[in-house]
Amino acid sequence: MQPRLDVEKVAPDVYKAMFALEACIHKSGLEASLVELIKTRASQINNCAFCMDMHTKQARKHGETQQRLYTLSAWRETPFFTGRERAALAWTEALTSVAETQVPDDVYEAARKHFTEKELVDVSLVIVTINGWNRLSVAFRKVPGDYQPTWL
Fold first, then answer.
1. CA angle 83, 69, 93 (to 5 degrees)
2. Which of 18, 42, 76, 147 is most deeply packed, by most CB within 10 A?
3. Per residue in 12-42, pLDDT tens?
4. Class of domain 7-139
5. Which residues 6+ apart lie within 8 Å of 120 measured at CB?
6. Is 92 helix (H, G, I), strand (E, B) or coil?
7. Helices marked H in the chain
8. From CA 70, how far away is CA 90, in angstroms rounded?
């Protein structure tokens, strides 16, 4: 696989804007492990190999288990995820596939049971941001494999 172009080199202001969103996520107070589950699940849906590689490595750095990462795409079929995580994963799937789902009321109501209004906005920002990264990485063929976790 050959990358098409390096977005960071071609458009550094785009990267700066995306990292500003990441800074908001980091300051949100959401659990780092939850953020990485959300990012990994959205990346699975979007078939973004670079981001799946990155965020599974980040998740492991935050103490995530291999078992949960291996079964993340089938989270509904496992007992491994908490109610809060399940609500976030359902919200992730609905927002990532918004053109198809229109974010159903039952998914929203489930999320509201586990998140404050501010947290729900923060979870949504995680989803919006990772979907942006996924689209940049997939469109320009960012090559997976070399990422090493460097921050918590």
1. 55
2. 42
3. 999 999 999 999 999 999 999 999 999 999 9
4. mainly alpha
5. 91, 111, 112
6. helix
7. 7-10, 12-27, 32-45, 49-61, 66-70, 83-96, 98-101, 105-114, 117-139
8. 17
pLDDT at position 34 is 98
Report CA-CA distances (Å) from 77 to 71, 81, 111, 130: 9, 10, 19, 24
The label of the residue with tokens 């995306």 reads 18
User: Which of left, alpha, beta for 47 (phi over 0: left; psi -120 to 50: alpha)?
Assistant: left
Indicate the domain borders of the chain.
Answer: 7-139
Which pLDDT score, from 0 to 100, does residue 143 have?
A: 87
Query: Do the Cβ atoms of 33 and 62 come closer than 8 Å?
Result: yes
For residue 86, what are the CA distances in angstroms to 16, 89, 90, 91, 114? 31, 5, 6, 8, 9
Residue 140 amino acid letter: F
Tens of pLDDT along 85-109?
Answer: 999 999 999 999 999 999 999 999 9
Q: How far apart are CA 97 and CA 100, in angstroms?
A: 6
